[in-house]
Amino acid sequence: MNRKGYFGQKGEEKSCRYLEEKGYTIIERNFRSRTGEIDIIALKRGAIHFIEVKTRSSTDFGFPSEAVTREKRRKLILTSRYYLTCHREFEGFRHQMDIMEVLVRNDRFYFRFMENAFLEGDD
Predict the structure, then answer these.
(1) Is the distance from CB of 80 to CB of 95 less than 8 angstroms?
(2) pTM above 0.85, yes or no
(3) CA pair distance 113, 123, nearest whole angstrom
(4) pLDDT tier at 123 (50, 70, 90 boundaries)?
(5) CB 3.0–4.6 Å: which of 41, 58, 81, 106 could bond 28 by disulfide?
(6) ∠41-76-58 over CA atoms, to 5°?
(7) CA-to-CA distance for 23 and 3, rounded, in angstroms?
């Protein structure tokens, strides 16, 4: 695995721990379909959270969340719909699209969790 892949994987692992400390139950990681991938799928208070994790070592080129482009949001929405179709046990649950920003500086991880970061139909 290259450095970039390792860096992103570490950000996802640390994000899962952060979310669990905040009361989220991680139900799946790296869910893939033909339409895309969702980094973390979590459950809290009867809501399904589809979470895109973006990890960076600086903000020189913008905040990590800015890398979630319109096309990436579209793919996340399509993939979340597919997930819900495949997992009928979550039928009737509220769901939302969240972004976890992770900044790493001097081997320390800083998080900004953006709930309901975007909605279906946002453009």
Answers:
(1) yes
(2) yes
(3) 21
(4) very low
(5) 41
(6) 85
(7) 30
